[in-house]
Amino acid sequence: MSETSGAPGAADRTPPKQKARELARHLRGERPDYAYLKQVFRHLRDELEVEIPRAPKRLPHVPSEEELRRYYQTVWQARNFGDMVLIKTLPYTGVRVSELVNIHLADVDLDRCQTRINQGKGKKDRVVPFPDGFKETLAMHMDRLREKHAAYLFESSWKKKYSDRGVRRMLERYAQEAGLERTISPHQLRHFLLTWLKKQGVDDALIQPYSGHASRQSLEIYSRLAIEEAQDEYNSVIGRFPI
Fold this sequence. Notes:
single chain; hpI Integrase, Chain A; 2 domains; three-stranded antiparallel sheet; 11 helices
């Protein structure tokens, strides 16, 4: 009902504190705890048909293919091999930065061109692919790390794994050097891959296994698919990736 049809407006409502006292008189005999009150007010909201206002989701900025090429060209010209490997690993695998910094050398299977992500978002394990053409570069990087007795795929010279902040700063620095109007974040590189695969016609059900998205529907679909099938589809299109 609208206010013009007799419904009270906000100015006519009982003050919240007074209304709380009135409700308390009804509820005190129940000796409610927090969980009980939470359930009561959830059902009360349903009874009154009160909708929860939600802020509209903003789509993340996705770099264009030209911006990504410019960006990678800047990385290549810097001649920092470790940075180049890291910045290629992010868009090739679509891993989150929190997952990237926790990859161990032992998690990388060069023969299968796969990397195991342990305890990713939602405490779930999964396997992500990388292109066959990236295998030799990655192997060289791993050999250098093994000579230094490293444990992680990306470690500093002090034998400490990279931090989330350190990776973000690295990406921001190269974006500035490339003269891009917007910075580049790990999430944007991940989103670029998933969007790019979608544009290539790869089915959502085949993207999901290595994206780490865990909606109920996608998990039900995933349960009927093998990771090898997803990787076959990935391999069929990744040769056209812009970097």
